[in-house]
Amino acid sequence: MENSTISAPATPEFAGQNHSQTHHHLEPDHHHHHAALPSTSILLIVIPIFIVILLLAIFLLIVMLRKLQNYKSHGSIKSGSTISNNDCMFSARSSINISSSPDVRSRCLYGSSGNKMAASKCRGVQVFTYKELEMATNKFSAANVIGNGGYGVVYRGILSDGTVAAIKVLHRQGKQGERAFRLEVDLLSQLHSPYLVELLGYCADQHHRLLIFEYMPTGTLQQLLHSSANPQFSRTLNWGMRLRIALDCGRALEYLHEYTTPSVIHRDFKCSNILLNQNFRAKVSDFGLAKIGSDKMNGLISTRVLGTTGYLAPEYASTGKLTTKSDVYSYGVVLLELLTGRVPIDTKRPPGEHVLVSWALPRLTNREKVMEMVDPALQGQYSKKDLIQVAAIAAMCVQTEADYRPLMTDVVQSLIPLVKNLSSNCSSGSFRSVSPRKSSHLTAQVKNFKVGHMLP
């Protein structure tokens, strides 16, 4: 009995120690659980943000690539127009895009900083500072003024490289003036034809707006044909010169209408916008009011009526509906001026003769009256057959209904043989009546107009 061992329960002290050891043993697992939780949460937040940023970067890259592609496809000129000296001069079309003006995008027009900027080029057209043009015109001396009008003043100037140029200082104010300036720079920097006045450069220093053109020493057709101060000028324009001017102008409009895509409507075609070089060859100028035609079948666009009274087509003047046939009407008015020596509107003439088209149109179908209409300054030096043919073309161009007017291509093809025959006649020293070859399409139109009986 004395050797029996009795197991006594653990004392509270040892129990507390065991509990403490158990507590200390479990505590590291509890801390590990809390340490792992924040890193998982960070990953759950960072990964979506990274994905969103990556997607945004891809989206922006796609947008930039598309803009670059559009810029390359629309901002460049797909000009494949090759010009020859043959009668059919244009073997390819010129693609233009006026909506994507390079001037704001590349800051060519508005990026100059006063007179510090040296002459540079934007799209092949030279950019001048105002100071350079001051030097070229002797500080815009009145002695160098060669033209004046509502648009501004034109000066004769000599550029730094010795080139003689016509420098037009624009006076147009407001949004319309700015639009006209930008449009003319845009158009003429892309359109290249021997029948359009060449744009050499421009200036857009601060508020100054100037255009620099090739110099045409003989002046405007308006000055030569209607100058009351110098009536000998109209006598200088003989029949052959007038036919050649008519053909040159016709080719200019043919280029704008038929050989550009989309077509360009001049909208202000008139004698004062036809310039002549030293050989009396004509070029068309002033595209401040030009309009880009529609790509639709009839090419019809509606716009505000702008232009010069006496040259406006009836449908455009009354409704604002503009097509290339509106230019054809204006061309017909100029053709009548070349034939008669009269201005489009002349209130000093007797009643019934104030408006050239209204007075001339019924007379163009009568052989005898056509002869009476001819400009006295020609002194009878012309071919009667050629006169009748030109009168028939003019009659078609100034028809009240636009659909009855010919295309400029038909007009050009009808004038080419007249000029050729005239050249051969002049070389032999006579005005022999040579039956001209006529464009079959326009001749058919003339017969429908009942002037075919005029042609012998």
UniProtKB/TrEMBL annotation:
Residues 1-31 are annotated as: Disordered. ATP binds at K168. Belongs to the protein kinase superfamily. The keyword DNA damage does not apply. The chain crosses the membrane at residues 42-65. This is Protein kinase domain-containing protein. Coiled coil: none annotated. Residues 140-419 form the Protein kinase domain. It comes from Cinchona calisaya. PROSITE patterns: PROTEIN_KINASE_ATP, PROTEIN_KINASE_DOM, PROTEIN_KINASE_ST. The keyword Nucleotide-binding applies. Keywords: ATP-binding, Kinase, Membrane, Nucleotide-binding, Serine/threonine-protein kinase, Transferase, Transmembrane, Transmembrane helix. SUPFAM superfamilies: Protein kinase-like (PK-like) (SSF56112). Gene3D superfamilies: Phosphorylase Kinase, domain 1, Transferase(Phosphotransferase) domain 1. InterPro entries: Kinase-like_dom_sf, Prot_kinase_dom, Protein_kinase_ATP_BS, Ser-Thr/Tyr_kinase_cat_dom, Ser/Thr_kinase_AS. One of its GO terms (molecular function) is ATP binding. Pfam families: PK_Tyr_Ser-Thr.
